[in-house]
Amino acid sequence: KEGVYLEIQTTLYDKNDHLIFVRDVTRLHLLEKMRKDFVANASHELKTPLTVIKGYLETLSMFADSLPKSMQKGIVNMSEQSERMEQLIEDLLLLSRLESDDKREENQWHKISDLTQSIQKAIEPILTGEHTLIIDIPDDARLYGSYKELYSAFSNLIVNAVKYSPDGGNIEIKWESSDLNGVFSIKDSGLGIDPRYIPRLTERFFRVDKGRGSKTGGTGLGLAIVKHVLLHHDAKLQIRSQPNYGSTFSCHFPVSRTRTDSIQTISPTH
Ligand code: ADP
């Protein structure tokens, strides 16, 4: 029947017999859809009032010099928090789009070095000079997918590597391909992550240290975004980390989505 969702599982009962379990999950699907719609609508509705608040704050900061010190501090604080809220809304909207079945940007072949170069340019303001980006990506390496989605996944991982290496150090960004797959990896020598938290990192709003997260301006949605983007690209995320020594986040793409030659004529059927 249309609109009915069933979950079917089979198990071998004995040599010749199978047990078939059928579960009606229509209600679960409806609830999930309601959750997604609510988050998408609420995030969208929050955009307009925030734009108005930010506008007035900008005007206020022009006159900040004539205000008492405590009010100047308040304006700086409000500006920082409204930037944070804007980032949160943007991330929620992006996650909603990634979760919905709406039409997606068409998949195309992209030079991986183009992606990393524009990310590098965009993150210049957060590079304090303490960090050294070591980028090792063959110029002819290409990936088949959505530029916007890949950009947000890779930039979230690179920004995290910077954010969670407060003492600076090297950040290695690499592309390696073999007959089996293509791997995009980011290695930092920062704070690292306790192994017991690793399985939870891609949950929405999960942060190892909430206090640390609010200081570094995180939303807790970055790795959830990475997970969804990789799912769209038939890829998997691998996380290896050692507290106080650093972390490596690797995105494993199937070989059908990777090329290393400069001319591409056939597209995979994704
Ligand atoms: P956030 O916006 O808080 O950075 P993410 O979803 O991107 O959210 O990451 C979730 C949590 O995973 C972070 O709060 C942080 O605790 C941890 N994390 C992510 N990347 C790294 C990293 N490179 N090094 C150490 N911890 C990390």
From TrEMBL:
EC number: 2.7.13.3
Compartments (UniProt record): Cell membrane
GO molecular function: kinase activity
Reaction equations catalysed: ATP + protein L-histidine = ADP + protein N-phospho-L-histidine
Broad class of where this protein is predominantly found: membrane
Domain Histidine kinase positions: 41-257
Assigned keywords, A-Z: ATP-binding, Cell membrane, Kinase, Membrane, Nucleotide-binding, Phosphoprotein, Transferase, Transmembrane, Transmembrane helix, Transport, Two-component regulatory system
EC class name: transferase
Protein name as annotated: histidine kinase
Gene source species: Marinomonas colpomeniae
Name of the gene this protein is made from: phoR
Residues of the full protein shown: 170 to 439 of 445
